[in-house]
Amino acid sequence: MKTSSLISITALAGASMLMLAGCSGGSGDGGDGGGGEAATRACVILPDAASSPRWENGDRPALEKAITDAGFEADIQNAQGDTSKYATIADQQLSKGCGVMLLVDYNGAAVAVTTKAQDQGIPVIAYDRPIEGADYYVSFDNEEVGALEGQSILDGLAAAGKDPASATVVYMGGDPADGNAKMFHDGAVSVMEPAGITPAQEPPGVWDGDKSATNFEQALTALGGKVDAVWVANDTNAAGVITILDKNGLTVPVSGQDASVAGLQNVLLGKQTATVYKPFGLEADAASDLAIKLLNGETPSVDKQLDDGTPYIAVTPILVGPDDVQQVVDDGNADAAEICTDDVADACAAHGVG
Ligand code: GAL
Question: Which parts of the sequence belong to the Periplasmic binding protein domain (predicted)?
């Protein structure tokens, strides 16, 4: 990711704060009775529950805790993969009053909400996924996520004694409507291409395990059943791909991200080379700190920016292979009992997970 080091965003944040002060002063901008209460509420919209378990299991509790521990109210809703529901939730939140909004985009729905919030003097933090026009962007370093995935594919090929330059690698990216998908792809390519990898097949990107399975099955058929590795953008998609590899009796390097239960199980079973672990609490804390500063009328300063100039806080992701799974459990971000079910129990024992 291109970033410029230490930029001052005082002017931008200052402008937001002036508007925020107007909103919290009871001008009614926040809607019916936003008034003084508005500045105490952080309004959050999550995208869905299906693309990844992270949103409900990881992000929601972490955001809720950080915001309420700081003495503010957290209004956290989930758009359930529905852009009109996204807009309706936003209108309801704005009419109750918001001092700040933290939005995870879903198919571009957050762009209009951002404009609406800013028109009411409410600063917007793009959480995890970039949103055009947002005041801030807080995420993991998405190109680094992709680079770690690419590295896991190279590691897997090396372990299998295969030359990456002649390997048949299928690329299974994320939904292009999510601005992160391109960053994951760019990061992965930045590592795989110098090793000589080019995509043998590249079906359309999705965030959907079932569709990934279907798309991968078609790609595999087109390749006459031959594949050496599959770069997959996240664990949910990887699980779909793995059902097809299993069906065809194939075990090849597969990447993923989110350290979901399914992903960690596949890593332990040797069906997925690694998952990129993004301790969601770190991301939620970074976003909540920013939100709390804004709610408190402070002027946050951020040391990076996206190519379009949006101030950007990037948290560092971690690559997790079978011997690192216990770290995720120790951090409280996965439950050993949930991971180590019947067919995974032996692998858990072998890799010290419990
Ligand atoms: C991305 C996010 C990933 C993954 C994916 C599917 O934007 O960064 O962690 O969850 O969406 O929801």
Answer: 45-298
